[in-house]
Amino acid sequence: MLEDKLLIWKFNRGNLNVLRGIYEKYKDDLVTLAAALLNDVSSAEDVVHEVFVSFIESSRKFRLTGTLKGYLATCVANNARNKNKARRTHRGIAFDQASPAKADSNNPEFHAIFGEELSQLSWALGQLPYEQREVLILHTYSGMRFKTIAQQQSVSINTVQGRYRYALDKLRSMLNGEIK
Amino acid sequence: MIKKLQLKASAELDKRVHDDISAALTKSEQTKSVQPQPNIWRTIMKSPITKLATAAIVIIACVIGLSLWRTTSSGIALADVLARVEQVKAFRCKVSFTMNDQIAPDKPYQFEVRSTILLSREYGLKVNAETPDPNGGWMPYAETYISDEKKTCVEIAHTKKKYVREELDYYAETQGDQEEDWSDPGTILKAIIACKYENLGRSTIDGVEVEGFRTTDPNCRSPVSESRWSNPQVDVKLWVDVKTRLPVRFEEFSSSVDERGNTHSQRQVVHDVEWDVPFTAAEFEPPPVPDGYEVLDVPRLNDEETAIQGLKRCIELFGNYLENISDDAGAKGIIFFAFEKSETSTALRLKEEIKGLTGEEKLDRVSDAGEPIFRLIWFYVGLVQDKKEPAYYGKTVTPKDADKVLLRWKVSDSEYRVIFGDLRAETVTPEKLAELEAGLPK
Predict the structure, then answer these.
(1) In whole angstroms, how far apart are CA A14 and each of A48, A66, A96, B302?
(2) Per the CB 3.0–4.6 Å rule, which of A51, B26, B190, B273 could disulfide with B93?
(3) Contact B89/B276 with Cβ under 8 angstroms?
(4) Which of A14, A41, A49 sits opposite B17 (nearest CB)?
């Protein structure tokens, strides 16, 4: 936390080189988060790239109120949400109702990266409605509080907790079925 | 299981992000080259808190400068004084500082502070300052702790209930070797080297036999003085203990007249100097910040964005742009003067808020509100110092003149940066700039 504060302190004073340190420190977590949200590694990397482009542009305006990791995770989640909305609009149907190729349980990309078990998980996550998936990932993977997620999604904390429960139930159900 | 998910960012993403950072760095370097490189001395002088610390350094610099003065007729070799001072590891002294400013012909302003200073070559600097209490006596004004070892500066402004904690490395990062100014303010040194002086002979101060030196050479002035103003008056006196060959008292009076004809003067007296005093490291440890104190916003590097923010604040506060942004030393007066004449809603609201406050409090509140304008002015002055060919047309260009050049400076031989009346910023060629400026109202 202190290290992050120091990084931000230097960043705010125009030391853009610290961005390299920030990127190196969090890049894998952020790509993983975005990929889990979008079920697409390529789009996930685009999202992380966009987040850092915005971050670069925010030099000297940035004010860290929480943790740097939390801030970046929020940015990734917001960008991923926008990307997901854009996909929906583009396709004219709900993306979550579609069955994207890369969310396939046999997706070789995910197999190669995660191995059998996690690849199944990734597939199952891809089957969840986006809002539920986002709550589940942000809470379990990024450790974000329900209250924070509720603020991000502009819904009540009850709704967020409901989405989380539904997501978990569905995930369990799907994984039990698949793995069996 | 979810927590076990772990992807690795690809080499391609690494390249994209690092390339973007490199591009931003390059751009930043280009911008930085036109930013004022804030001399730490200037930064100190701009701060109402750290300003006080300068007196301690003044005395050292003065003595360093004395090395170039010849041996006096009465026998004190000032080189010897310097050698002795250089051997001193720490000293304590008291400083009385009075500044009389005129922010407008009918607006005299006085600032008075007295402080105790402890300076150690090993540990740094500590200043405890007091200011007159309107109810009588003195009240705490500010505390400053500068650690050479930790490269930190902590300032607690009691009257404002604010504090700041800064790393001195920041200045080193942004100014290269200018950090040396901290302990060896070349500005003063050069001024003293260049000055002529007279010997005042011997007298007694607090029972100690001293020999005095005096100069009225206008070149001999500390950075507290504003060198660009007219009619500079300087009177500097230094008394050295005949026995120990160490300074015991230093007085400086200086005055000058700004571009609007207002007189500014200041007087500082360094007295009760104790050389090689005992002290403990704990004395340089800053105390906890009292509850309820807020962080003081420290001026940062001033760039195009801060300039635009300053211009925006001009519109809010004055309804128009300032006519002149080249006088950084008189900035406070310029802003206050423009504020007094203004009838914008922001100005009227602030005027209402500050009704009943003392003159100094009003000035502080207006200065706080005009902080972005100070940055704009420092940005412009920096451009002048860096010879970036800046030009400002606030006298004739208004916020309604969307396409007229309001402020411009040179970026390279083939490029100028222009801020227009509507506060857009663009890079243009010299030819385009000439065309734009030809259309400006005379």
Answers:
(1) 21, 20, 41, 11
(2) B273
(3) yes
(4) A49
> Which CATH fold would you assign to the domain A2-175?
Butyryl-CoA Dehydrogenase, subunit A; domain 3 (1.20.140)
Of the candidates B285, B247, B284, B265, the residue with the CA atom closest to the CA atom of residue B84: B247
Give, rounded to a whole angstrom, the gap between the first and last alpha carbons of chain A: 42
Task: Compute the nearest-CA separation of B14 from chain A (Å).
Answer: 9
Domain boundaries, chain A: 2-175
Structure tokens at B8: 């690795």
Chain A residues bordering chain B (beta-carbon distance below 8 Å): 9, 12-17, 19-20, 23, 27-28, 30-32, 35-36, 41, 44-45, 48-49, 52-53, 56-57, 59-60, 113-114, 117-118, 121-122, 125, 136-137, 140-141
Residue B34 bridge partners (DSSP): none
Shortest CA distance to A37 belongs to which of A66, A68, A80?
Answer: A80
Which of the two residues, B102 and B437, has the higher pLDDT score? B437
Put simply, the answer to whether A32 touches B5 (Cβ < 8 Å) is yes
CA distance A1 to chain B (A): 18
Q: What angle do CA A132, A133, A138 make, to 5 degrees?
A: 105
* Separation of alpha carbons B419 and A137, rounded Å: 45
Decide: helix, strand or coil at residue B257: strand
Contact yes or no for A45 and B21 at CB 8 A: no
Look up the pTM and report it. Answer: 0.46
pLDDT of A65 > 60? The answer is no
Q: Which of A16, A30, A60 sits opposite B21 (nearest CB)?
A: A16
The model's confidence at residue B79, banded by pLDDT at 50, 70 and 90, is low
Contact A19 B24 (CB under 8 A): yes
The distance of A148 to chain B (nearest Cα, Å) reads 19
Q: What pLDDT, in 10s, does the model give residues B149-180?
A: 676 778 788 877 888 776 655 433 333 333 33
CB contact under 8 A, A59 and B24: yes
All residues of chain A having their beta carbon less than 8 Å from the beta carbon of residue B12 are: 45
**Closest-CA residue to B253 (of B240, B242, B264, B239):** B264
CA pair distance B49, B113, nearest whole angstrom: 10
**Chain center to CA of B78:** 30
The confidence band for B358, taking pLDDT boundaries of 50, 70 and 90, is confident
How far separated are the first and last CA of chain B, in Å rounded?
Answer: 73
Q: What b-and-e string marks burial along A118-148, b requiring 16 or more CB atoms within 10 Å of the CB?
A: bbbbbbbbbbbbbbbbbbbbbbbbbebebeb
